[in-house]
Amino acid sequence: MSTQKPLHIAIAGNIGAGKTTLTEMLSKQFKWIPQYEDVDHNPYLLDFYEDMPRWSFNLQIYFLNSRLKQLLEIRRGVDTIVQDRTIYEDANIFAPNLHDMNLMSKRDFENYFTFFQTLKSMVQPPDLLIYLKASVPTLVHQIQKRGRDYEENIRLDYLRKLNLYYDKFIEEYKEGPVMIIDCDKNKFAENNEHFGEIIRKIESQFYGLF
Which region among 119-128, 153-162, 171-180 has the lowest average model confidence (pLDDT)? Predict the structure, then answer.
């Protein structure tokens, strides 16, 4: 499948929503280049889950930097990219939530958010944002299924609050087109028909470009 110009498709969603799985499946289906979030080599993640107030700012700056590098690579490249998580989620969901829960100081949060605003003015939004919307039970089920050690201690109220931030973010997102997938109903990872629905929606979104 060839395109007139390389596209940037970004997948947003809470921890355990299925972003990495969908990124992988779409990259195979459309021969797109996947860009994953590098959780294995993140030097702060383990420390963060052990002591959130101490490491929240460091972690968010690390994410912001790696996401910005990804965006610059995407814009320089000639291939259509499907990206696991967006730069917007760090700033509009994770950082404000940490601040809200008194896990990031006001000073750190304001510094971080101002930095994000500067960076945001330098990058282009994705051609399509796919939001994987999932209830807390669905998220918990999928987090348990993948069994990452550092995720074992994620609190339910943390996931619940992130979901509220995600819904607000998607409601207010005006950077470009959004596709919402209800992951309580659409089990794309194990159901071919459900995955087919997502493929059809994407094809109709870019109809005329393909």
Answer: 153-162
Q: Is 174 in a helix, a strand, or coil?
A: coil
Whole-number Å distance between alpha carbons of 106 and 22? 35
Report DSSP state, residue 183.
T
Pull the structure tokens for residue 143.
């987090």
Q: Is 31 exposed, middle or buried (0-12, 13-18, 19+ CB in 10 A)?
A: exposed
Q: Are 24 and 144 in contact (CB under 8 A)?
A: no
Q: Give this prediction's pTM.
A: 0.89
Supply the DSSP symbol for 127.
Answer: S
Contact between residue 12 and residue 37 where contact means Cβ atoms under 8 Å apart: no
Q: What does the pLDDT look like over 97-131, one tens digit per residue?
A: 999 999 999 999 999 999 999 998 888 999 999 99
Going along the chain from its start, the domains and CATH numbers come out as 8-205 (3.40.50.300)
The tokens describing 204, both together, are 């109709």
Identify the CA nearest to 49 among candidates 139, 149, 163. Answer: 149
Contact 39, 28 (CB under 8 A): no
**Active-site residue numbers?**
84
Q: Is 135 exposed, middle or buried (0-12, 13-18, 19+ CB in 10 A)?
A: middle
